[in-house]
Design brief:
By secondary structure, this protein is an alpha/beta fold. It is built from eleven helices and eight strands. An eight-stranded parallel beta barrel has the order 1-2-3-4-5-6-7-8, surrounded by six helices. α1 packs parallel to α3. The longest helix has 17 residues. The protein binds erythose-4-phosphate. The site of erythose-4-phosphate has 11 residues, from α7. Erythose-4-phosphate binds next to α7.
């Protein structure tokens, strides 16, 4: 499973990228707002840093302007994936941009039917939002399973990009189901390393190192 990092924080991306843990980046208007940076500038900086796809989201709601914005975003770098919302206009923009050879990430997906439409419109990535479904007591992971089944049934090559990941368990479940990509905030990716038995075992080893005076250097 590919790991995308869901942030526009350059420092956080750099830290994980240096460890080989970043296969791509996703941003959205809320993350751009949080960064306090200009969308074009910060997106360019991210694209220079990371080899994989960097999703940058359009701001318009009509297909024609989405396509114009998408083309402007595509000028930033070769690894831009234009992010469009899963509306009928978003699907029109997806079709036009993907027909032109662009990578397109269709975002805000909350149903299998929406994912089916995105695949038919030529999406490179479909972004089902797990956490936001869980927030309203629906099953986000069931949606990932549905989309996996639908895409496999018909051989669609649109990649399932599990988004709105909030916990390490979401990551594990997405990997079990077979999501192609997951995107998570840096803190969730770092938390994947944590286990209480690792901490407990290390504490014992450190105590033995101290009491036995074990030295390597
Ligand atoms: C993905 O592309 C989105 O930016 C993101 O995963 C949304 O996550 P949230 O629901 O935690 O805001």
């Amino acid at each position: 499973m590919k790991f995308f990092v869901d942030t526009a924080d350059i420092e956080a991306i750099s830290e994980l990228n240096a460890l080989g843990m970043v296969d791509g980046v996703t941003t959205n208007p809320s993350l751009i707002k949080k960064s306090g940076r200009d969308i074009l500038e910060v997106t360019k900086e991210i694209c220079d840093l990371v080899d994989g796809p960097v999703s940058a989201e359009v701001t318009a709601t009509d297909a024609e302007t989405m396509v114009k914005e998408g083309k402007k975003l595509l000028e930033i770098a070769d690894n831009i994936a234009v992010k469009v919302p899963l509306t009928f206009d978003g699907l029109k923009a997806c079709k036009e941009l993907s027909d032109g050879g662009a990578m397109v990430n269709v975002t805000l997906c909350f149903s299998g039917n929406q994912a089916l439409l995105a695949a038919k419109a030529g999406a490179t990535f479909i972004s089902p939002f797990i956490g936001r479904l869980d927030d309203i007591h629906l099953d986000g992971l069931e949606l990932i399973e549905d989309i996996r089944t639908i895409y496999d049934n018909y051989g669609y090559d649109t990649e399932i990009l599990a988004a709105s990941i909030r916990t390490p368990n979401h990551v594990l479940d997405c990997a079990r189901i077979g999501a192609d990509v997951m995107t998570a905030p840096p803190a969730v990716i770092k938390a994947l390393a944590n286990h209480p038995l690792t901490d407990k075992g290390l504490a014992t080893f450190l105590a033995d190192i101290e009491s036995a005076g074990i030295k390597i250097l």
